[in-house]
From TrEMBL:
<feature type="domain" description="WxL">
    <location>
        <begin position="841"/>
        <end position="999"/>
    </location>
</feature>
<dbReference type="Pfam" id="PF13731">
    <property type="entry name" value="WxL"/>
</dbReference>
<keyword id="KW-0732">Signal</keyword>
<feature type="signal peptide">
    <location>
        <begin position="1"/>
        <end position="28"/>
    </location>
</feature>
<feature type="compositionally biased region" description="Basic and acidic residues">
    <location>
        <begin position="58"/>
        <end position="81"/>
    </location>
</feature>
<feature type="compositionally biased region" description="Low complexity">
    <location>
        <begin position="43"/>
        <end position="57"/>
    </location>
</feature>
<feature type="compositionally biased region" description="Polar residues">
    <location>
        <begin position="32"/>
        <end position="42"/>
    </location>
</feature>
<feature type="compositionally biased region" description="Polar residues">
    <location>
        <begin position="82"/>
        <end position="99"/>
    </location>
</feature>
<protein>
    <recommendedName>
        <fullName>WxL domain-containing protein</fullName>
    </recommendedName>
</protein>
<dbReference type="InterPro" id="IPR027994">
    <property type="entry name" value="WxL_dom"/>
</dbReference>
<feature type="region of interest" description="Disordered">
    <location>
        <begin position="32"/>
        <end position="102"/>
    </location>
</feature>
Amino acid sequence: MKRINWQRLATIGLCSSLVINAFSGVTAVAETVTSESSPTVASSTTQESTESSQETTETSREEGTQETEKQAEIPEVKTETTESVPESSNENDRQTSISPRWVPNDQVIYPRMIFGFTDETGKAFADENLTLSGTYYKLARHTATSQWRPYADRYPIVSSNAGGGQYRVAVNATIPMPYDFLTNLPAGYTHNLYAIEQLKIDNTLKYVDSIVAPPGSINRTRYSEQQTSEAAQFGNYVKQNLTQRDRIFSKNSANIFSLNSLALAPEITDVLTMLRTDSVERGPILVGFDGTTTYRETLNYVVTRKQVTEKFVDTNGVAITPPTGFTQNKKTPMTSNAFTFKQAGTLPDTYKASNGKTYKFKGWYKGKTKPNTLTTTKAPSYAVTYDGNDDLTVVYEEETVTTLYPSLDVNFVDEKGVGFTPALTFSGKYRVQRTSDRLYTDLYDLTSKSKGSGQYTLSLNNGTMPLSPELLRVYGNDKPINGTNRLNFSLDKLAINQQLKYVNSIELDTVKSVMKMYGYNYTSGSATIIDPNQVPTEYNLSAGNIALLGFDTDGGYFSKESSGVFNILMGYASDGGKPLITMNLFSGNPVNASKLVYTVTRKQVTENFVDTNGTKITPPTGFTQGNQIPMTSNTFKYTSARALPASYSVGGKTYIFQGWYKGKTKPNTLTTSTTPTYNTTFDGNDDMTAVYKEASISANLTMRGAVDVIDNGAAMEYWEVLLKNTGEAPLTSVKIKPTTDWAAGISTPTELFILGTGQNTKVRPITKEQWEAGFEIPLDSSLPVGGQLTINLLGTKVTGQPNQVLKAAVEVTGNFNKLTASDTVRIKDLDQETKEPTGEGFISVPTFNFGQVGVAGSTQQHSLKKAADYYGNGTRNPYLRIKKTQPNWSLTAQLSQPKSATDSLPTTTRLLLGTAAAASFTDYNQPTETKTPLGKTGIVNLTADNTATAVVANQQFTGSDVYQLDFTFANIKLEVPANQGMVGQQYQAAVTWNLVTGP
């Protein structure tokens, strides 16, 4: 059995707390040379070249042209140191035993220098290997005639190839120059010198026009007098200007070029300057060399070759703009004595010049005079004759050309009518086929130009197409165009070059397109194919022609084989017996009304929303069932415009997100990311299907007040309304209002204190009208599954009768079934404290106060005190109220010994309670609470020795869980034995009530 003892009433307060939870090496040596006064000579810089050479002696040929072949007689002059040089001797052989410096009475020099040859372009002349030869001789000036007369001796000049267009030229002998060279003279003569008599190029150069050196000067070396030994110092004297005789090779009838000194020259300038010896007083001067075996000087000559000039003229001989790739007056140099000219490139049969004229090839001829019959090969080639009649003249005849304008505007719009703007290019080969042998001839490549916003211009040959009688003869195999030899101009196909995997179809919009065919009459054999003044006849395209304007696809690329765009037919139809030319979508007018409009239907990603059975459902807010997103590229990646909600409510139903899948077939496992995204595959399996499960929504609502008992008229600290989400889906809306059970004695709340899962704590004021109409709780986010929301009602006052029970009841609605909850509060009793026990126990127990009593000499019984604040001056009875839950129960009581601070009453003291009226309660603690009398207990008298006295026997009273025993105020006595107690003492004792319960 369970035993509960009660001595006094204890009040326990319950409070709740909210816990709210981040040269290879060169060395230059300078030497100062003092120069005597000399005639002023223009100075220039000449490049020095020092080379060793080994030369082969050649026999001089007398092929050079002398300006005067007769030489004046000169007295015999004896030379003391002249050596005879055999013609077959080698230059190097002669130099191996001769010292290149002054030697007393045995002085020699080595005249030599480099001759360089470049062509007219500045490149080394390399058309052939040159051989230079000539004679070197000694002269003295005849005083009486002022002539330079030669001695009898001659020295051969030889050459060798130094590479790079340069040649070593040397006198193949040791040239004597003793100390008395300047003074050992015949009578009547002054001044001895050496010079080149003739230097010629032995090669026959028919193809060379001239050999000329630019104006310039040449270095000179001066030696002093009376020295026994002196090192060569090239260029230590002022330079000598070259004369025209030095600079220009003369050419004879045999096409031999040479430099020549004038016989019996009256002036020194008539004698070649290079390799000449001069003097100043007693000092020898060497021009272009220093007397040693080293080559010091280089003279450069430009070899200007004869040219073949290419000319382009019309039949009247007037110069015309040449074809592309050719140049008017282009010059081709001749490079040999057996040069054959070959024109670069192949001459076109026809071409259109920059002036808009079209020319037809007639032929070509060589030379200055046009022959009656031209040569008609397209790659002119012939052997030149070097006689000024080697130029090429190409003759073209201006054709009368009819110009057509194959140009067409083509617009592309998407399925919404907006310009389809991905950059497109188009291709196709335009060709002509003749029916006589079914031969195709390729003409032009289709070109396109974007105008923006999905608009393009298609054209052939930049929008112009020439037709001429000559072209028709070519196309028709030199046969007339008629019913048996017709011409069909067409594209082999019209293709969009870009892959368009994301496009489903490209369809011709026949309503918005303007499709015209233009017809012209023409006369076969006429110089003009179409009369330029003729107005074409317009025809509507046939269904067959329109069908050729569409596009087919292989799933990635779009094209149309044998497209009808720019189709021309000749010989297929006639108008009144005249042959007719028909043209699709263009004409002989640069401007025409034709245009094609195509609708581009892109492949779509369709967004579907279904339940777990695959049945379509209303989608979440912001989404549309069957919404289609067009693909925009070959690498299109679908991404949902927004995240799929974890749950949503619509039409009274709530759906919970399960996942999504791509394509037509639902997989076993769904993808659960909330923002679907994936690369499309363009294969019809690109739709997105979101799967939601219809959720069961449930919630639990409870309500409790801050206290169970309250003073009349006091404010309830709070009413806590607790909403818990016990379902499968979030709670998206919550509304609260009082039910009809809300007691009139409980006033309207003035504020709502709101907190909960996922919510910001907030306080909202509320009016009586809002409260009664229902107040929408502002949620920061949906209340998740398992979450809870606390709504504390603040500011209510409770007014009623003592011990009256008042109910506070609310209903809460939202995306769930309506819920109600309530709690009660009891108006505080005027006499006893009331408390709701936990489980079984005592709700209220009386306090017995007997006030002030006297000490008597006999046993006395004292009544309870009477006071307005104590049981209403005895008008109300003390009572005991209990709560039990088990069927078996009994109640006993016992009294402790009354004691004061210094004294105690005897244990024979008694508390006389008499009988108690028993009653039971139904609907306890509810406004409908009812008290039902059950009868009386036996007389209850308690002795102060803690002896337990039965009050209620087991199962004496049944049928309820709450019972009350009312003790009659007037019958309650305290019996005190005689002469007990002390004056001024306050005695207290405890009445212990014992509730025993059991099953």
